[in-house]
Amino acid sequence: MTTELPIAVIALKINAQTSISNFRRNPDFFASFSFFYNKLLTDLYKHPACIEIKQQDNTIIILWNLSKANAESILEKHKTIHKILRETNKSFANCPINYLIVLEAGICNIIKLQYNSKAPAFIMQSDMIERTQKVLSSIDGAKYPQIMFTHDFYKLLPEKVKAKIFCPYYFFHICCYSFKPHR
Amino acid sequence: MKKNNYLTIKEFSTLTHTPIDTLKHYDRIDLLKPAYIGENNYRYYLPEQAFLLTRILFGVKAKVLLSEIKSIILDDNPDKSYNHYIHINDNLQQMINELQAIQGTIASLKYYYDLTIKNPREKLFINYFPEWFIICSPSLSLNTVAGSAESNIADNLFIRGFHNGMWPHYQLGCMYTEANIKNNSFDNPTYCLKVDHPEEFNPDEIVFVPNGNYYCFLINVGGKGLRSAVNIFLQNLAKEKKKIQGNIFIIDVINNFITSTPENYCTMIYARQADEDK
Questions:
Q1: What is the mean pLDDT of residues B221-232?
Q2: Beta strands in chain A (DSSP E)
Q3: Which candidate from A151, A167, A174 shows the least CB-CB separation from B199?
Q4: Would A139 disulfide with which of A46, A144, B170, B179, CB 3.0-4.6 Å?
Q5: What is the dihedral of CA B2, B6, B10, B12, to 10 degrees?
């Protein structure tokens, strides 16, 4: 059985010094990242709109149900992430973590193969995650702002928020916006 | 008389994989002088001169001018040389960006050329286009003589597309707004330029063009004029009962980059499929 669900994706890319030389891992990184990730899971899963948090390599993908929360409240979540990170960096000063965020929204399909099964539904995110990863790879440098919204997310924001922001960017045929850079 | 450890220019050329003419040129400009010149004016080199030649060739490969290479080699100050290398690295990065952008332009040309091969002319087809940002000129009169206001604005748009003073990698086109389509007035098109660096423009100027399925139509405009070409496109849409929304865009898909013959010159007219048509 397939149903449609509006979702938002927060893609978070972590940058930290994972090795201290070509041959030695940074021992502080594991502790620092574990602290950060645990705190992130605890804080964000509390939110009723949070569907799933998954991590692969240095990217963390957080899926939100847009029928339970609006785009503005999801945008506010980057402040929560920033707060957790600041706390982590304070506790683990030897291995500071930086992050980049891309926010994307769209309609996805939820597939339930067996309706009565207790197994969780499989959520098809179309190409949303690939799009966020393309943008993440482009902003991975000092030249661009730390947070980027795709046009699909931007159009869901209320006018008063749109008026505060936005500087347009274009990466790999994806239209994005961000806060005006401070630099 | 040739000494034992000296190499003739031919031997040195073979050893270093460098043409003899290049070695002679480096001698003439005092970049790499032979270690010994025989009575017969033949040039002889020492094998260790290959190290110096390696430094010169490194500079050549890094696209540094020979005069600059000379000053780097002769400079005894390591800090100054290091700064030179940083500068060379920046130039190379700029060249890489430029070459990647040219590759992007060629990929775009190939994409549109493939469309003309796969689809017959003067027949509608659907194609998916990604989202883009454009900047627009004011609407212009088609009756204006070439070289006057119309082409000036096109030129200005084109020039504004330059990024960091480099080739713009543009897609300059023309469009009719929804109001033009509603009033059936195709005398005043607007020029538009797809921009890859919208952050360099005033956000108020930037217009978002949504992604989606577009009804496309390839036509040889030569002799017909833009007005009649758009009318043919709209007639075809009406005949097939297709509905469009948003602007109508017109771009030259086979331009004089690919062909110089007017009969191959081809224009694509396209507009987004209406939501109710899906």
A1: 82
A2: 2-15, 50-56, 59-65, 98-111, 122-124, 147-150, 167-171, 174-178
A3: A167
A4: A144
A5: -170
ipTM at complex level: 0.81
Question: What confidence score (pLDDT) does residue B234 get?
Answer: 94
Return averaged pLDDT per consecutive 10 residues of chain A, 183 residues in all: 85 88 86 91 89 89 91 89 91 88 89 68 79 89 84 92 84 88 56
Contacts of A169 in chain B (CB under 8 A): 198-199
How many CB atoms neighbour CB A120 within 10 A? Answer: 10
- Tell me if residue A56 falls in helix, strand or coil: strand
**DSSP letters of B206-275?**
-EEE--EEEEEEEE--TTT-HHHHHHHHHHHHHHTT--EEEEEEEEEEE-TTT---GGG-EEEEEEEEPG
The domain limits of chain B are 7-74, 98-277
Question: The domain that contains A153 carries what CATH number?
Answer: 3.30.70.1230
> Does CATH number 3.20.80.10 belong to domain B98-277?
yes
Inter-chain residue contact A168 with B198, CB threshold 8 Å? yes
